[in-house]
Specification:
Elements (H helix, E strand, L loop, with lengths): L13 H4 L2 H5 L3 H16 L14 H24 L10 H15 L1 H40 L1
C-alpha cells in the first residue's frame, strides 16, 4: 500500500492504525513533563510541589529567614526599651523581658518561632474582638430602646 503515488489516499490517523500498546504509551511531551515534575520534587527535598506550584527559591528562603531574624531582634530590643524603670525582680513584665533576652542568646530560632506564635495569637484575639464589637453594640442599642 504505497500512498505516495495516490494523492487521494491519505495515511490512516495515528490512533486508528496504532496498536493498543502504542496508544497507551505517553507522548514525548507527557514524558518530558513527568520528568520535569520528578526533578522538581527531587530538588525540593523530596516534597511534592503543593498545588502544582514551584518550590521556593533558596535565595528567597534565606531572605525570609534573615528578615524574620532581624524582625525578632528588633521586637526584643523595642520591648526592652519599654521596660518599666522601677520594677521589682518578680514583676511579670520584667520576667517576660528577661525570658526573651535569654531566649535570644540561647536559641534565636526558638525566639523567632515563639514570637511568630505570639503574634498569631495576638492577631486572633484582635480579630475576635472586632467580630464581637458590632454584635455587642447592637445588643446595647436594643437594650436601651427597650428601657424607654
Amino acid at each position: 500500500m504505497n500512498t505516495r503515488g495516490d494523492p487521494d489516499r491519505l495515511p490512516p490517523p495515528k490512533e486508528e492504525g496504532a496498536s493498543p500498546a502504542q496508544r497507551a504509551a505517553p507522548s514525548p511531551l507527557a514524558a518530558l513533563n513527568a520528568h520535569i515534575a520528578q526533578a522538581s520534587q527531587a530538588a525540593a527535598g523530596g516534597h511534592p510541589p503543593s498545588g502544582g506550584k514551584w518550590p521556593e527559591l533558596r535565595s528567597a528562603q534565606r531572605f525570609r529567614e534573615t528578615w524574620e531574624r532581624l524582625g525578632a531582634e528588633a521586637a526584643v530590643v523595642k520591648a526592652t526599651h519599654r521596660a518599666p524603670e522601677n520594677a521589682g525582680p518578680l514583676n511579670s513584665h520584667m520576667l517576660v523581658l528577661r525570658t526573651l533576652g535569654l531566649m535570644r542568646e540561647l536559641s534565636p530560632h526558638y525566639l523567632r518561632r515563639f514570637l511568630s506564635h505570639t503574634e498569631t495569637l495576638l492577631w486572633l484575639e484582635q480579630a475576635q474582638a472586632l467580630l464581637k464589637a458590632p454584635a455587642g453594640k447592637g445588643k446595647a442599642v436594643k437594650a436601651a430602646r427597650q428601657k424607654k
